[in-house]
Amino acid sequence: MTTKLMRATSLVMGLFVISRALGLAREAVIAHQFGTSAEMDAYLAAFRLPDFLFYVVSGGALGSAFMPTFSGYLARQDSAGAWRLASAVINWVILILSLLGGLTAIGAPWLIPLLYPDLSLAQQLLTIELMRWMLISTVIFGVSGVVMGILNAHQHFLLPALAPVIYNLGIILGAWLLGTTWGVRGLTAGAILGAVGHLAIQLPGLVKRKMRYQLVFDWQNEGLQEVIRLLGPRMVGIAVVQLNFVVNTILAVSLPTGSLTALNYGWIIMLLPQGIIAQSTATTLFPMLSALAAQGKRAEMAQLFGKILRSLLFLTIPATVGLIVWGKPIISLLLQRGEFTADSTRLTVWALSFFALGLVSHSIVEIATRAFFALKNTKTPVAISLVAMTLNATLSLVLMRLFAYLGYPPHGGLALANSIAVTVEMVILLILLRPELGYIVKPGFGQAIGKMGVATMGMAVLLLWLPPNGTWFVSLGGIGLGGAVYFGLAYLLGLEEVRLLRVNHAKN
Fold first, then answer.
1. Of 224, 252, 280, which residue sits at a domain end?
2. How far, in Å, CA of 143 to CA of 199, rounded?
3. Residue of 108, 422, 412 lying closest to 251 (CA atoms)
4. Cβ-based burial of 218 (10 A; exposed 0-12, middle 13-18, buried ≥19)
5. How far apart are CA 152 and CA 145, in angstroms?
6. Cα(468)–Cα(464) distance, rounded to whole angstroms?
7. In a domain, 25, yes or no
8. How far apart are CA 344 and CA 291, in angstroms?
9. Which pLDDT score, from 0 to 100, does residue 143 have?
10. Cβ–Cβ < 8 Å for 320, 405
C-alpha cells in the first residue's frame, strides 16, 4: 500500500507543483505591479471576508461531509440518489453564500471600519468596493468546490487539479493587462474571471459522468441530513482557522504600511513546499487511512502513518532550513522587480524566516487531522484548533509588541506566533493520536531524524558559503546545489527515504 500511495502522491504532487509554480508567477506579477503599497494592503484586507465565507460554508462540506456521503451513494450504485444529493448541496451552497454575501455587501460600510480601523479612509472605501466584487467569486467557488468533490469521488483528479491553474491564469491576466490602468480593481476583475474558469474547466467532467442536475433542496433527504451532521464540527474547525487569518489581518493593518503585504508574501512562499509536500500527501493518504479504519486495521493504519510521517520530515526539515538561510535570494528571485523594492524584500524575508519555523508542524498537522477524520473523530482536531487559535491570538499581541519594543519589525512577531501555535497543535494531535493507533513510529525513528539533521546541516553550510546576491544564476544554483548536497548526504547516511524515492521514480 505504501508504494501505491507514493505513486498516487507523485501524480498529485506533480500537479501541485504546476499549480504552485503558476501561483508564484501570479505573486511575481502582482508584486511587480503593486509592491507593498497601501492599495495592495486594501486588496488583501478585502479578500479576507469573502475567503472566510467560502471556506466556512463550502470548504468544510467538501472536505469531510459531502464527499463521504456522496461516495456512499456511488458504492450502492444509486446514481439517481447521488445526483439528487449533489443537486441539493449545490443549491444550498448557492442560496447560503448568496444570502451571506448579500448581507456582507450591504453591511460593508460598517464592517470594514470596525475590522480595519487603522486603514485610512481612502483605503477603507477601496476595501469596501473590492470586497463587494469579490463576493461574486465566493458564490462561484462554492459551486466549483462541490463539483470538485463530485469528480474526486469518481476518482477523477485531472480537471480538479487543473482548476487552480486556470484560476491563477485569470489573476495573472487581470494584474498584467488591467492592473496598469485599473490598479487593484483590475486584479479583482482577474480574480472573478479566474473563479469562473475554475468552475468552467470542471464542467466537462460532469457532462462525461452524465450528471442530472435538479432544482431541489430536499431538506428531509437522508443524505443531506448526513452531510449536515458531519459538517458541523468541521465548519467550526475551518472557521477557527479562517478567524486566525482575520485576526492577523486586523493586527497587521495597524502596523507600518506594507506589513500586511509582507506577511502575505512570506506566508505564500512558506506554503509552497507545504502544499507540494504535505497537502499532496494528505490528499492521497486520507482515502487509504479511511479504508483501513473502516476495516478495523489499526496496526496497518499506524504503520502507514508512521512511514508517511518520516517521509514528510525527510522533505520538510531541509525545506525549513532552506527557507530561513536562503530566503533573501528566493524572494529576490521571485518578487523583487517593479514596485517590489529591496525594502519590500527585506520586510518579506523577515516574515518568511518566522513562518518557516512552522513548516514542519503545518505539514504534520495536515496528515494528523486526516487520521482523526478517517477514524470519524472530527471533534478532537476542532477542540485542539480552538486551543491553537487562542494561543496564536494571545502570542500575536504579545510578540508584536515585544518585537516593536526591541526595535525589530513587529510583523515578525505575528509570523512567530503562528509557528509556535501550530507547533503546539501538532504536538497535542500526535499525543492524542497515539492511543488511537497503538503506536506511530517504529524503532530507529530518532536515529533517522538525527541523520536528516546532519544532512540538513551540510546543506546549510553550503548555502551560507554561497553569496546571497539574488541573481537568477546564484539563486537557482543555490537551490539545486543545496538539494543535491542534502540528498547526497542522506544517501551516504543510509536513510531509507532516498531508496524509496529512487524506486518510485524508476517505476514511474
1. 252
2. 7
3. 412
4. middle
5. 11
6. 8
7. no
8. 47
9. 92
10. no
Range of the domain at 271: 258-508
pLDDT at residue 506, as a whole number: 45
The answer to whether 153 and 71 are in contact (CB under 8 A) is yes
DSSP reduced 3-state for 297: coil
Among 218, 252, 286, residue at a domain's last position: 252
Query: How many angstroms separate the CA atoms of 502 and 508, rounded?
Result: 10
- Tell me the C-alpha to C-alpha distance, in Å, between residue 438 and each of 299, 302, 303, 382, 478: 7, 7, 10, 22, 42
Q: What is the DSSP string of 353-373?
A: HHHHTTHHHHHHHHHHHHHHH
* DSSP tag of 339: T
Alpha carbon 54 to chain centroid, angstroms: 14
Q: Which three cell numbers stand for residue 19?
A: 499549480
Question: Other CB atoms closer than 10 Å to residue 447's CB: what's the count?
Answer: 11
Cell (9 digits) for 456 = 540538513
CA angle 302, 306, 307 (to 5 degrees): 120
Question: What is the reported pTM?
Answer: 0.74
Same domain for 239 and 341? no
Q: Assign residue 32 a region: left if phi > 0, alpha if psi is -120 to 50, beta otherwise?
A: alpha
Is pLDDT above 80 for 339?
no
Domain tally, the chain: 2
Cell numbers given for 90: 449545490
Amino acid at 214: Q
Owner of C-alpha cell 519590500: 344
Both 423 and 287 in one domain: the answer is yes
Task: Give residue-wise pLDDT tens across range 462-473.
Answer: 888 877 665 565
Q: Rounded to whole angstroms, how far apart are CA atoms 396 and 304?
A: 36
pLDDT 10s digits, 422-455: 999 999 999 999 888 877 777 788 899 999 999 9
Residues 278 and 317 in one domain: yes
Compute the CA torsion angle 369, 371, 373, 377 (nearest 10 deg).
-90
Is 141 within a domain? yes
